[in-house]
Amino acid sequence: MSDVAARLAQIVGDHHLLTGDAIPEDYSHDEELTLAPVKPDYVARPSCAEEVAALLVAASEHGVPVTARGSGSGLSGAARPQSGGLLISFERMNAVVEVDTTNQVAVVQPGVTLTELDAATGPHGLSYMVHPGELSSSVGGNVGTNAGGMRAVKYGVARHNILGLQAVLPTGEIIRTGGRIAKVSTGYDLTQLIVGSEGTLALATEVIVKLHPRLDHSATVLAPFGNLDQVMTAVPAVLAQGLSPYILEYVDNMTMAAIVHTQNLELGIPDQVRDSCQAYLVVALDNRLVQRLDEDVERTAELLAELGAVDCYVLEGGAARRLIEARERAFWTAKAIGADDIVDTVVPRSAMPKFLAAVQEMALAAGGGVAGCGHAGDGNVHLAVLCKDPVARKKLMTDIFSLAMELGGAISGEHGLGRAKASYFMELEDPTKIALLRRIKESFDPAGILNPGVVFGQG
Amino acid sequence: MSDVAARLAQIVGDHHLLTGDAIPEDYSHDEELTLAPVKPDYVARPSCAEEVAALLVAASEHGVPVTARGSGSGLSGAARPQSGGLLISFERMNAVVEVDTTNQVAVVQPGVTLTELDAATGPHGLSYMVHPGELSSSVGGNVGTNAGGMRAVKYGVARHNILGLQAVLPTGEIIRTGGRIAKVSTGYDLTQLIVGSEGTLALATEVIVKLHPRLDHSATVLAPFGNLDQVMTAVPAVLAQGLSPYILEYVDNMTMAAIVHTQNLELGIPDQVRDSCQAYLVVALDNRLVQRLDEDVERTAELLAELGAVDCYVLEGGAARRLIEARERAFWTAKAIGADDIVDTVVPRSAMPKFLAAVQEMALAAGGGVAGCGHAGDGNVHLAVLCKDPVARKKLMTDIFSLAMELGGAISGEHGLGRAKASYFMELEDPTKIALLRRIKESFDPAGILNPGVVFGQG
């Protein structure tokens, strides 16, 4: 056993340090599609913040790069470790420390999955409302990527639902930020700086999440439209009504066909409607009172008809749940149909028609194709990119990101840059901002041990 | 005219650079109570981002400290300039650039006041929902302090309603952050780092604010309680119901008496009720449908009765508006009754009874007194501190802040640290965090020209 391994083992215990062949393949990647898996030299499974701190001190002293891992469900490669590096897996730090009903927060360790958190808060009538597609994702992962998901249109993304952190700096110092409080104007907001930093600034070892009262009633409306432009025009109109949908998604017909096929879904849409429609809008409403929900569903259906929907289906509980679940699994559908890469750009929602039309043309010109769905209310577009040739694909991806930025958007709405999208960011972002981000990075991590290659790429 | 003055005048034009006796007294302070006014050496009134950039370059080269000023309505002295310094007043940069109804945002210059913004968005049925007490405050000031106000319990603080910035770095570089988008996971969140940084990191020259649909109907319920503990116990119970009040305020009887007296307010509360009550809860509800509002008001009144309210008054439009306005002007009431300082701490709402009881005792022991009101839903406590002796007062303030932090809170919920509360922050905050904040400050402002003395104090 090397000196480094011996020291790391001393911190977490022999049983919780893995090296060499003892490291399972699963630790060599997350769910990102394009990067080759890489085994780290060490996997440590700490049990507490103090062990994380000691690991970071040891890594600093030995110049070992450190990658944090929650559930490994990320889609940008931020949890793909480096050769020679240390992967810190938070799987043992998976306690729900407290569900605090008075302050409507939960205090959790980073390894807690969303499924586990929901099981803990449910009996109190409360929910953490961030709902990325993968409920096996961990709260720590949500912090790292600033996770989003379908409910963000009403309840916000991780950033809006994470109130405080205990975090370990690369120097081994442990700090607390924020708290069981929804507002604070006392120095710079370290919580929000660490949220979305993809393990490059500090490692969260405890997270205070905001909880909302569970609303007892919800319903889902599915509206097919003749074309995607009409869907995009309908989105702001629905939002302007103040109906506050908690889901407002578009699905193009290619993606809907793939979802229906791979998930074996029966939505009761007649063939002739399906054949004449290029896109769907999914609107879900929630309310604490069933009568208000029914009224709002009716109003929504009327509104969608006025806005040109070909038809409007109010899905019953089971069908609604299956559609939403299938939509959440759109990444797996994209993977199943052989997507070569995925896009998670965000643009102002007013720019979505132009963006989507241009992207279709770009993809055809590149000899490839795109199919998509996304968080229409947020302008967050998810595309499966089909383009085998790596050179053409890289150019296509660059063109897509470049257009999104020209339209006032950004490369990633919720997946993060990770390792996979960092080079595009380096190429396209304002160099003044990159230089500033690098200086901020150095103010946390002067030795550069935390997830090198992520956000800033290799350059 | 000095070399510096000549150079600054060249940037903004002679007419928009003031020096010496030409500087009106108003520029020497904001509304903070304890600091002596200080005239800056220069007041510049730029018209655009490029002029702001040129001013910062000139200030850097000449080592001139720079303070930004919006409307000067701040309560912590972040806009109080320094002798020898340059005050940049944003009064000429007061254009509402665009009200974008599709993306539900407004793009404004920092000098726009909340009254002006509301006038611009109103005709579109939209509102910027941050509502600090002072509607003459500017959007740029809201960015600087991360302004809050009564509606934060439902609509969040400035942080949650500011989506993007154009900002000038102290080096004169102009960057854009965020955009007309509600979510983004693309590099560190510079928008949220600049929001609440009180003019110490960068100066906002354009702000993208989130707008909400205006709800047509609102109502205000006023409930007197026997004691403050009962009020504080009622708060989480109201929130747990999912009634989503947009205002949830407590007012202690001393403050209510002062408000009623100074504002000449008639609330129709019988003397015997008033005499038996130590505190009031104010609950305001809004809805797009009047019938739902009426139902929710009725449910709220029932609930407050169950929670021990002595009575419950549903205030008519005029009375409700006057009470809310009077509550918004509580700072002026505090000033009128001769408050020696004010406190804006935030604590977890579960800790409010303990905090308020302890603070009363501390104040009595210091030979002074406190009266208060605050954003009960957010745990944000506003206290008028009466304590003439400066040594005793400083100790009392330190003890109050220290207790708030022990209880998991922070020195300021929404006013910021400014110049006035910075020394308490330096004394009480974790030195590891202060060192990190300093490094972040240096990553933006290596020459330290932006608002020295603010946030970090003189140390």
From TrEMBL, chains A, B:
InterPro entries: FAD-bd_oxidored_4_C (IPR004113), FAD-bd_PCMH (IPR016166), FAD-bd_PCMH-like_sf (IPR036318), FAD-bd_PCMH_sub2 (IPR016169), FAD-linked_Oxase-like_C (IPR016164), FAD-linked_OxidoTrans_Type4 (IPR051914), Oxid_FAD_bind_N (IPR006094), Vanillyl_alc_oxidase_C-sub2 (IPR016171). SUPFAM superfamilies: FAD-binding/transporter-associated domain-like (SSF56176), FAD-linked oxidases, C-terminal domain (SSF55103). Keywords: FAD, Flavoprotein, Oxidoreductase. Residues 35-214 form the FAD-binding PCMH-type domain. Its cofactor is FAD. One of its GO terms (molecular function) is FAD binding. This is FAD-binding oxidoreductase. It comes from Mycobacterium vicinigordonae.
